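Input set for joint prediction.
Command: fold jointly, output tokens.
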Amino acid sequence: MPKEPETSLAEKTFVLEALKQNLRVDGRELHAFRDVQLIFGDDYGFVDVRLGKTRVLARISAEVTKPRSDRPFEGLFTISTELGPMASPAFEVGRPSELDHTISRILERSIRRSHALDAESLCIVTAQRVWSIRADVHFLSHDGSLLDASCIAVITALAHFRLPVVTVSGEDITIHDVEERVPVPLSILHWPICVTFSFFGDDENGETMYLLDATAQEEALRAGDMTITVNKNGEICQIAKSGGVAVEAEILMRCARLAAEKVKVIDKMIGDALREDELRRNKGNLDWLKEGRAENDR
Amino acid sequence: MNFSVTTSPTSSLQPTMAALPVPDIELSPLPQADGSCQYTCPTSRTTVLTAVNGPIEVRAKDEQPNNATVEVIVKPGIGVGGVRETRLSTILQQTLTSLILTAHHPRTLIQITAQILQSEDHTNLSLLISPLLNCAIFSLLLAGVPLRTTAWSVHLAVLPSDDEQTRDDEMQTDDTSVHSANIVRNPNKAQLSRASSSHVLAFSKEGEMLLIESLDCSEGVGGRSADGQGWDLDEWLSISDEAQKLCCQDGVAVIREVLARQKIF
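tokens >
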């Protein structure tokens, strides 16, 4: 099957030499993100994230199932990621690549295991009926930072999604139609955001060079990478650094602080985009939202 | 339920057919693919995205000595692909293979990837076929894959003549008495649930029939003939005529207009 075109020696030298002079091929600052664009669909829980030429789409769906017998109070939450040939012909169907595994494992650790979604709030009848939330991540176009983009996509989609209202009377449950009762947002405890650093060895002064939001070209040339997941409170949810060039502790601390800074900006951007979409949907009336929160008694 | 469809659809069905809403088409939304297109059906709001890569290297087991292999992958918006997606990709693969000049690129692969973005009902195949097919044709054109001709596909649904809502719609047109059965173009989910039959047809620019997917939707509504079919031959022929007219005139006009707008060809 086709491979990604290999970077030529001239291209490689050009990019690396430019980096040593603090220049990137696309003219960005070393630690600048590309513009993040969030596009919401007609349905709740449908978000299309564009980060430069990278495009990732997340869709949330919910169904009622039986909980796991060892966790009768908790709902289910799964994240499904699959890199298909749409993002790049180098990705084959049904044969997950290494990148595929990395993305799904880090997303799992960042969002699911950091308890971003309150699993207990998904319980309808203990040990019998719970909501099963599914996040489908579709990679449409690959130009680097797939992980950062997909994390933003999943978190935004979760915050955007509305769960139908359920009433329980004895053993029977009634799922109310969207037209009948206003659906409620999910109970999201915090918004973890992934920030990936790409390392490029030492510059002339012997300092490790690191980039944020690398493009596909930069990713192909980097000497190592590290993903830090932080929420807006500055709490680190996970750090993943599998292999690559060795990084000093001081640089690592600097990265973590930078990540926390970037996450605050992204967090605010997501919040603004969600509010704007809500205003568009409800023609400027946000009052109903206050009553529709999942945290309130129903 | 009695359908008496006139065999001259051009005269009787024209009023309902007035003003075909133009689909929302975005060309080349994906910079990495050779050709790509995003298509939103104007009435059912079904949104699909297709990407074409090709001719590229083919797996040894799929290699054909004299022809290019055409592969279609359909990915659903929710969940993992199953029987439904395999069925969709088979329909698309067969229809598109008949359009592509596969002999021009022997021993290669033309890979068409389709992603369903939004759909009112993702379990309903007939809502998806025509957007997917039209979108794939745009992607193939943009990827520069040699095609024998262009084609267009429409989805037509027949609503029972006593359908209340259709009658309301018809009030807006001047001529209501002629309609004995109502054909709806690119129906949405609500219209489809009231329909007695639904037909997806594709025609090439020259009027050659490429695809027929006719379905009896009369479950629940109550089929009208003993064999459970939701249509008879006369009715089907009038639908086929209507579809051919739509594909060869409106469809071709849409393709021409969209490509001209982008100043591509």
